Amino acid sequence: MSEFQLFAVEDAGPRPLPVPPEATQFTDLYRGLPLGVYDALRTFDHNKFLYLNRHLARTERSMALLGWSYRLDRARLLRALHAVVTAAPWPEMRVRIDILAGPAEALGATSRELIALQPFAPPPPELYATGVAVAFAAGLARERPLAKTADFAERRPATGGLERRPTADGRPPEEEAGATEQRPEEEVAFPIPSAVGGRRSAVGLPYEYLLLDSAGRILEGTGTNFWGVRDGVVYTAGEGVLEGITREILLQIISELGIPLRLEAVSAAESAALDEAALSGSSRAFLPVIEIAGQTIGDGRPGPLTGRILAAYNAFVADNVKVAAP
Q1: Is residue 203's pLDDT more than 70?
Q2: Inter-CA distances, 292 with 134, 148, 155, 278, Å
């Protein structure tokens, strides 16, 4: 069985589309198509989602920022999404929703709306116990930070935290004969633990790359939002970043926990002064960072505030996941 499923959203319901046999990443499914905007998220309890309508609202805002007149039929999309994830054979899934700039004619479809699925496994518990190492992405920036465009996903560098599809016998792809390339993708599905304690990851890459603004301040990761903690205060960039849905939830949670919060980007030059740091995203939740560009953060272990926020986020998820359609 292929590790991917791809569907066109049509009035009659979702229609299966061919999946390239060589596909190893979501991006491989869209070769030759008119890329537009997309969203990527995970399922919970097989066919449930967290804040799904917020994801779709962000997709619609991205379309508006590109000047599109195309209107999304949310009800139709939700019905299709519920149908495909409910019928899928995997316990949990990574889901990508694309709204193309034009019809998917190369795949024999007139629809501009596609849904792709692949099996998903959350980051292993040991990653939250040990933390991950990150680096800076030189010269990479979002042209429109508030628009989640598929072309940015195509341009991102590979990282140690990016998903690579396991081989049929369960071995990591790098052990498969002839496997030499890791392609970029927007979110992790089968994480490869990154460097800790000064060691490189198994694939010799940081877990994630961080984007900087022109003043050298940390904005976000290539597929995550970034958080820093200093003297009991949580910092995250307030502008110039993608409106992460997980970020939105965390801002609410941090406020409710009574933890001081500042919507200010941390300077890369001052990252060594951080006591704690973390990445957030729909697949990663709130993942501790213990090293930035070779500089140890705090004592090199996930800190207490990070753990407190993660526990509150996990409780929030348990109380708020829902199916896409009744």
Answers
A1: no
A2: 5, 25, 22, 10
User: In this predicted model, what pLDDT tens digit does every residue of 34-90 receive, in sequence order?
Assistant: 999 999 999 999 999 999 999 999 999 999 999 999 999 999 999 999 999 999 999
Of the candidates 97, 56, 49, the residue with the CA atom closest to the CA atom of residue 325 = 49
Judge if 176 and 64 occupy the same domain.
no
**Residue 303 belongs to domain spanning:** 125-321
For residue 275 the two structure tokens come to: 């006591």
Q: Are residues 150 and 246 in the same domain?
A: yes
The CATH number of the domain holding residue 138 is 3.20.10.10
Model's pTM, two decimal places? Answer: 0.84
165 and 283 both lie in a single domain: yes
Question: DSSP character for 105?
Answer: G
User: Based on the domain organization, do 95 and 176 belong to the same domain?
Assistant: no
C-alpha–C-alpha distance, residues 260 and 264, integer Å? 12
Confidence of residue 8 (pLDDT cuts 50, 70, 90): very high
Domain C-terminal end among 76, 92, 122:
122
Report the alpha-carbon distance of residue 77 to residue 182 in Å, rounded. Answer: 31
326 in a structural domain: no
Closest listed residue to residue 76, CA positions, set 108, 45, 112, 103: 112
β-sheet bridge partners, residue 44: 48
